[in-house]
Amino acid sequence: MPRRMSADELLETSPFRGDLSEELTARPTRAKLPRLTLFLAAGVVLVAGILVGIQAQKTFGALDDRTAMIGQLMAGRGGQTGAQPTRQGTVGTVKLVDGAKVYVEGADGTTTVVTTGDDTEVRISKEGKLSDLKPGASVVVQGERDADGNVAATSVTEGGGVPRMRANQ
């Protein structure tokens, strides 16, 4: 029969097999996240960023067509050398189309008479005709401005698009 221990002896011994202090100090190996989980998390962050960007654009970033067109027209004038012909034109809203003339109101309220010819390109999100332009449409006109401020158009583009450069200019 096993010998009976005193209370002090019983408290000094461990009822567990092995060394408990070693087991407590040993760290369990940490499992790595699977690659699929990491890719899915990255995808969620990417989609969230896109959605936040879309909402920010809707809330804060919308420019009106007139501002965008002015910037695009001015960008087309930069960087020209003295050997190149200067491109002049106007930006604004169509007030009236009368035969071969288009009356365009600029951002400052002045009206410019734009004369067109058979070689004038008219673009309305696609190749178009002068009769396709309606009052209230925003346009970018490129051509030569005369002494009276009228423009002989080489290109009339509806909307915010940048007019196409012609090879012969």
Brief digest:
Residues 144-169 are annotated as: Disordered. The protein is an alpha+beta fold and 169 residues long.
State the helicity in percent bands.
Answer: 25-40%
Counting DSSP E segments of at least 2 residues, the number of strands comes to 7
Q: Please tell me what the overall shape is.
A: rod-shaped
Low-pLDDT residue spans: 79-84, 161-169
CATH superfamily of the domain at 65-76 and 87-158: Nucleic acid-binding proteins
Say what the CATH topology of the domain at 65-76 and 87-158 is.
OB fold (Dihydrolipoamide Acetyltransferase, E2P)
Number of helices: 4
Rg, Å, rounded? 38 Å
Structural class: alpha+beta
Largest sheet, in brief, is:
5 strands, mixed, barrel
The ordered H/E elements are: HHHHEEEEEEE
Physical arrangement of strands within the biggest beta sheet: 1-2-3-7-6
CATH class of the domain at 65-76 and 87-158: Mainly Beta
Proportion of beta-strand residues: 15-25%
